[in-house]
Write a structure and sequence with these properties.
mainly beta, single chain, disordered N terminus, about 325 residues
Length: about 325
Amino acid sequence: MKCIPLKSILIALCAISLGIIPLGAISQDAGTTGFNQLKNVFSARAVAMGQALTGIDKNPDGVFFNPAAIIRMERKELGSTYTNFFLDSQGGQLQYLAPKNKYTAWGFAVKYMDWGSFDAYGVDEEQSPVDLNRSFGAHNFIASASLAKYLSPMIDAGASFKVVYDQLDDKYAAAVLLDVGMIHHPENEKIKVGASVRNLGYQFLHYTDARYREGLPLTFAAGISYLASENLLGALDISMAKGENLVAKAGIEYAVQPALKLRMGLRSDAADQRVGGFWGWTSGLSLGAGWKWRSNRIDYGLSSYGDLGMIHQVSLAHEF
C-alpha cells in the first residue's frame, strides 16, 4: 500500500482546521458558565495534538475526553501530568487505567488547580479601591471514576462520574457530573469515530446563601481519527461548550521511530488570544513529543496562547 506523505497530511489537516474557523460564531451566552476548571486539559499528548482526542481509541486520556476510549488497552497504566499556567498558577492530574478484559475497563483520576495568592481589595463609600491588607487564594479539585464497555465489534461505550469542588477565598461551590461517550469502529480499521457529552450534572453547594447556580459548561464533542500508516495518525474534533463558541481542533502524531513520536496541533479558537502583539499569529498552535522506554513513557506538550504566553505540560506514565 502506498503511504500518504507526511507533508500532504500536514497541509490537509491545517487547511481543514482553518477552513472551519468561521463556524465559530460568537455565542450569546459566552462567559456565562461557572466551574471553568472543567475545561482545563491536563495531558501533554492532548495539548500537543490540539486537544483532538475524542475520536482516538485505546486512549488513557479518555477519562477526560471520551470515556469509551479507555477500553481495548492491553495493560494497566498509572500516569500523571504537571502544568504551569499563567501568573504562577499550576495544576496537574493523576490517573489510573485498569482494563479488566476485552469487554470492560475502569479508570480513576484526580485533577487539581491552584490559582495562587492575590491581594484583596475593596471599595470605600466613594467607590475608590481600598487595600484590605490581606490576600486570598483560589483552588479547585475534580475526582472521577470511569467505566467503558465493549458493546459489539463496532461500538464501545463509556461513562465517567465526577465530583468537582471549587473554592474562592472563603467561599466554595461543588457539583456532581456525568460524562458519556462512544467509539465507533467502521469496517475500515484505519478510521475511528467518537462522540461525547461532558459535564451533565447538578450543583449541590453554592457560593452564596442565595443558592445562585454558577452554571455547568455542558460540552458536546465529536471526533474522527485516521491511521494513515503505521507511523502516522491524524485526528479532527469539533466541540461546543455552553457559553462558548464552536471550536475545531486538529492534530497529528508521527512516529519517527517506535520509541519517539512527534506531535502538532491547531485549535480554531486562536483569535481569542490575538491582541495585536508580535506572537499573536501563533495562537492556537501546539507542538510536542513523546518518548517510550520499556514500560515507561514521557510526553511533553507546548501550547501557544499568543501574546499571553506559552503553556507547558509534562506527562509521565508507567504500564504494568
